[in-house]
């Protein structure tokens, strides 16, 4: 049975005595992955607070390295045997051209990267890590290792294999 209720602002709401069954959001993959992501972010922020606020020394001035800059340094370090350009950041980190441009400019300004012309195309600027960025990468790597050890604590290696297999299937399902 439907009942129409009129409000002063002429919006019509429909009330029904029927109860519709909705799915439980807490039982969905999306909810649980987002919840886990937030939980891990909070863990990193609170347990690694000293690291997150760590100021790296660079020629007498102090700089804070943002999370995005840290990700970019990690990407460059992982792919150090390849020629890295700004477009690689856009693809790897799913960021826009303007965000990547601002990121590169800040990293150059902060002494984390320097640019050099590409061997194939002089119009293209290659990005290279500075020794300061390598020091930052070393600190990030130490902290990431501690965090990963904490996250894996108490989880059987076979269960981790299944976990990663499921994550990869979810990635395939969402391409």
TrEMBL record:
This is HTH marR-type domain-containing protein. Residues 26-172 form the HTH marR-type domain. SMART domains: HTH_MARR. Gene3D superfamilies: Winged helix-like DNA-binding domain superfamily/Winged helix DNA-binding domain. The keyword Metal-binding does not apply. Pfam families: MarR_2 (PF12802). Keywords: DNA-binding, Transcription, Transcription regulation. GO terms for molecular function: DNA binding; DNA-binding transcription factor activity. It comes from Companilactobacillus nuruki.
């Amino acid at each position: 049975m439907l009942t129409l209720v009129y409000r002063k602002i002429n919006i019509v709401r429909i009330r029904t005595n029927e109860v519709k069954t909705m799915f439980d959001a807490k039982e969905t993959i999306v909810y649980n992955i987002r919840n886990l992501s937030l939980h891990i972010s909070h863990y990193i922020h609170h347990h690694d607070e000293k690291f997150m606020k760590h100021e790296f020394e660079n020629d007498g001035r102090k700089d804070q390295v943002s999370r995005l800059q840290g990700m970019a340094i990690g990407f460059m370090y992982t792919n150090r045997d390849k020629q890295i350009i700004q477009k690689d950041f856009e693809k790897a980190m799913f960021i826009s051209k303007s965000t990547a441009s601002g990121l590169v400019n800040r990293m150059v300004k902060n002494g984390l990267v320097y640019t050099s012309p590409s061997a194939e195309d002089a119009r293209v600027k290659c990005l290279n890590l500075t020794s300061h960025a390598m020091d930052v990468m070393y600190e990030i790597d130490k902290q990431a290792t501690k965090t990963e050890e904490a996250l894996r604590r108490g989880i059987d290696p076979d269960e981790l294999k299944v976990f990663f297999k499921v994550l990869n299937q979810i990635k395939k399902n969402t391409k």
